Amino acid sequence: MSNFRAFRIHNDDAGYRAGIEQIGADALTPGEVLVKVAYSSVNYKDALAGTGKGRILRQYPLNGGIDLAGHVAASTDPAFREGDAVLCTGSGLSETRDGGYSEYARLDARWTIPLPQGLSLRESMILGTAGFTAALALVHMLDNGQTPALGPIAVTGASGGVGQLAIDIFSRAGYAVHAISGKAAHFDFLRSLGAAECIDRHALAFSGKPMDSVRFGGALDNVGGAMLAGLLPLIAPYGNVAICGNAGGIAFDSTVMPFIIRGVNLLGVASAGTARPVRERVWQHLAGDWKPRHLERIATREATLDDLPDVFARMLAGDSFGRTVVRVAQD
Fold this sequence. Notes:
Elements: E1 4-12, E2 15-23, E3 33-41, H1 44-51, E4 62-63, E5 67-75, E6 85-89, E7 104-107, E8 113-114, H2 121-143, E9 153-156, H3 161-172, E10 177-181, H4 187-193, E11 197-200, E12 218-221, H5 225-231, E13 240-243, H6 257-261, E14 265-268, H7 276-287, H8 295-298, E15 299-303, H9 308-316, E16 323-327
Parallel strand pairs: 9-10, 9-12, 10-11, 12-13, 13-14, 15-16
Antiparallel strand pairs: 1-2, 1-4, 3-5, 3-7, 3-16, 5-6, 6-8
Helix pairs in contact: 1-9, 2-3, 2-7
């Protein structure tokens, strides 16, 4: 195989740097499945890793990109044949192994997911880790008894990628979604995705009481910190709060009262290392009964490998909206 293009990240005696390079297949981390990458996506972790603003990678050098979708170019695992459409999210990509910002990538067979019927490669990367995280949260909530009858689901950080996809996914699954965001200018867009109500984060006053009047049946919280502490007293008996982000801080001040009086469950959503059977379950939902209706609206930008530095800068500056799909090669 001739050399190919990759967005590669280094951290050595010459400093932290990243950019397009020509590399060969022998430079890729080991794996049974060689994939010709068609699409990837941009997540906040990708922006941190690609700029050095966050310590995401555990070894260097590596190709960036925590998501990828493409076709199998070669495989030593009999479960995958040349030409098969596959995807991978998390699973060590751009952390301990080369990621999706490359024309080719090698994957462990155990983390390689056949593209489910009902999704295109591009659609799978509009979803990517963000959509997978939102759907994984719903799976955990369902496994803990969440039903639409408990009341509306609050989605915090609703203007972000996870938030937008969560609105679409949860509403598709039959839940009324109340979107909480500090960006009121986006409320009409969030309603168009399926939000039954939009709540301005700046106008959301929490009483500070250990228990308060029930307002939500459950919540998907992308924020943490004071937001999580404020939500817990408002959750219906036996409702669930799934936490998947910490934009508002990693610590929160609360009491045990919501948990022992109302039986509220606080569920951690760790998408990167999700076991394969659960991964397959989530992706089947995303390709079927939970497939968002507004993927093309949520995908507000399509970028190339060369565009990545600009995309990262805009994301870290808070000047991005919706999901960015990275076209690595043609389908």
